[in-house]
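Thread title: Can someone regenerate the structure for this chain?

I was given the following input by a collaborator and told the matching structure tokens would be attached. They weren't. Posting the sequence so someone can regenerate them.
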Amino acid sequence: MVNITQEGLNTPIKAKEQDNASDLKKAQDVLIEKHPEKYFKHKGVGIERKLLLSGNLCIALLWIYKFYRHNEFADKEKYYTKNEFFFDTLGTSDYEKIFSKYTQLKHWDLIAPMPTHPTEVKYKKGYWGITEFGIKFCQREVAMPKYAIVQNDIATKHITNPIMIDDALKEIGLDYDDLINL
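Best answer:
Regenerated them for you:
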């Protein structure tokens, strides 16, 4: 079988593997073309996703903020699970729609996963805590970039189109004061 070298790599690959790689590239190009608001070509490996700091993410953050503020057993220095943060909404129709992607808030450093090792990057799965930025954003003290560019579940950059929590909620027809006082 004839060996060819894939562009950018020094390792030889078989012609059939080259065809699979080119099929994958075509599929990525189609995704980028059909959904430019979500995907774009990156000079590195693969594609990046453009995530929006949406009203639903802001609702989830407000629920987390209120959990820390109103739950007598909540400690700002501790980490909690999704079921603990959103216990009062479990089983409702809005639960999955609004709170299913709340972990995306990490891309703006509004929440953080629970570390399990003092010197290594290891986290306890499913446990999250609010950050100082998360608190300040909820208290309308700081604005956040509207978009995060994410590759391999890591924010690589932000598009500095600043948005306040009030504005994100208004985009979906909600009022900050009504939500914070629920």
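The chain is about 35% helix and 25% strand.
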